[in-house]
Amino acid sequence: MRDEHEGQVSGESEVSRRRFLAGSAAAVAATATLSALPGVAGSASAVARPTGTRPNVLLIVTDDQPKDTDWATQRIRNWLVGNGVEFTNGHVTTPLCAPSRSSIFSGRYAHNHGVLSNGHSYNLDQNTTVQRYLKEAGYRNGFFGKYLNSWNVADTPPHFEDFALLGPVVYNDGQYNRNGTVQKIPGYSTHVIRDLALDFIQKGTSDTRPWFLVVTPKAPHGPNTPEPKYANTAVPAWNGRPSVFETDKSDKPAYVQDAKATLADGQRIRQDQFRTLLSVDDAVQSIHNKLQATGQLDNTLVIYIGDNGFAWADHGRTAKSVPYRPSIEVPFYLSWPAAGLGAGTTDNRLVANIDIAPTILNAVGIKPDTPQDGRSLLTPHRRWHLLTEWWKQGNGTAGPTTWASYISTREQYTEYYDLRADRQGALAGTGAVLFREYYDLVNDPYQLTNKLYQATQRDERKLGIPALAARLAADRESRGHL
Asked: What top-level branch of life does the organism fall under (predicted)?
């Protein structure tokens, strides 16, 4: 249902969307063509052949990668944007690693999958995950890199048959659970993960099953340790954005008023993130080359996303976990040439990490038997707003309190609550609203002016706050769809 607050989309955006949907519709014809092909060019012993209508699926999830990191990922963009689709309004529904990754796997909001923080990873019902559906459909599932925070590295990740879990998550000489054996694998972790992924893809030339591969490097998460060849690479200068220089924060919650990060802090984090992302750019290019060399590129659905964004001193903060755009907006790309999604288009729909699992299942032709909050990006569905949410952990006083936010392309309404999650994810507190924010994202994209600060009831009615609050309350209780 369309919100009354949302405006019309532009003609250019509608053209891009029609192209995308035309490509989606072409998937049926493309898979029929693939099934009719006798094989693809190359050596029969070295090149994979189409195995019917189901695509391979490659999911790449980076760690703490915000938008505006294009310079460090030029080859990724050449592939997945130049030969795919860029979602210009990509979001995460909880800007924290484990909750976001659980939403990616399950297609569900955190309030439904139960992983409310990095300490609640075992709350995820593994039977609701995309890897479970694909394994039962005969897919060969692989996972290499960071799994879920607080997951015991010795525990097998359910529904994956070939895996190397990195834990603790480090850049150099990491400890991995390699198919059930915990061992040290020397080397820069982005390279290790890359090489394991290449071997997995190569096996597709002899194993006729379609495959699902998840690649999750540590980069660009702190401490942002680059590989030696990029340790001193110069990155383009960046002189901040208006949210970095906000001086009057009296209209913001207390934790923002107390934040003191400077432009120099943001510049340092940005530089270090870029340097680690250069290695990810190399790794993804190697994966592209392997797919191409083995004849698997065209019928591989590739999805790339950051698990959350990160602030570069915006509003004085260098972190995530907050309801501001640098924290919740992420790069989000998709490519699938065999389905017509390889031409290089943009899509301005409001999309999120919860849409990834439904998209994969739709592409494979599986209807889930558990509710999902997301929608397939291969359909014409367009949402007009999105829920984002985050929970305060424990009894500490630092940082934000629990919050939830209504977001559209035009406006954002946020409520902070008297709620805390314990070690098991159980909530305590009155639930009372402690603070509220409203931003006009069209005229105030950097979220400098909270229009609810000192607002009268009449002001709130003019902004449509009662309706937004009611919608937000309903979203927080939502239970997905089948």
From this structure: Bacteria
In this structure, is residue 427 part of a structural domain?
Answer: no
Helix axes 97-106, 356-364, angle to 10 degrees: 20
Residue 229 above 90 pLDDT? yes
Q: Is the peptide bond before 358 cis (omega within 30 degrees of 0)?
A: no
263 is a domain residue: yes
DSSP secondary structure letters along 434-458: EEEEEEETTT-TT----TTTT--HH
CATH label of the domain that carries residue 333: 3.40.720.10
Cα–Cα distance list, 191 to 5, 182, 212, 289, 341 (Å): 47, 18, 20, 15, 29
CB atoms closer than 10 angstroms to residue 10:
10
The predicted pLDDT at position 409 comes to 96
CB-side neighbour CA atoms (13 Å) of 58: 26
Q: 234-284: per-residue pLDDT in tens?
A: 999 999 999 999 999 999 999 999 999 999 999 999 999 999 999 999 999
Residue 59's SS3 state is strand
- pLDDT by residue (tens digit) across 34-45? 333 222 222 222
Has residue 443 been placed in a domain?
A: no
Distance, CA of 149 to CA of 330 (rounded, Å): 20
Q: Which residues are bridge partners to 301 per DSSP?
A: 57
pLDDT given for residue 448 in this prediction:
98
Q: Is residue 12 pLDDT above 90, yes or no?
A: no
Count of domains in the chain?
1
Query: Is the peptide bond between 38 and the residue preceding it cis, with omega within 30 degrees of 0?
Result: no
Whole-number mean pLDDT of the chain?
Answer: 90
Exposure string of 278-294, with b = 16+ CB inside 10 Å and e = fewer, is bbbbbbbbbbbebbeeb
CA–CA dist 362, 379 (Å, integer)? 9
Rounded percentage of the chain residues whose pLDDT exceeds 70 = 89
Residue 459 within any structural domain of the chain: no
Distance CA 160, CA 139 (A): 10
How crowded is residue 32: how many other Cβ atoms within 10 Å of its Cβ?
A: 10
- Do the beta carbons of residue 358 and residue 373 sit within 8 Å? no
Q: Give the Cα-Cα-Cα angle 233, 234, 236 (nearest 5 degrees).
A: 140
With 0-12 CB in 10 A as exposed, 13-18 as middle and 19+ as buried, what is 49?
A: middle
**Per-residue pLDDT, 53:** 78
Structural domain including 240 reads 12-39+52-379
Secondary structure of residue 373 in the 3-state scheme: coil
Element (H, E) at 476: helix 465-476
| CA 29/CA 364 separation, integer angstroms | 14
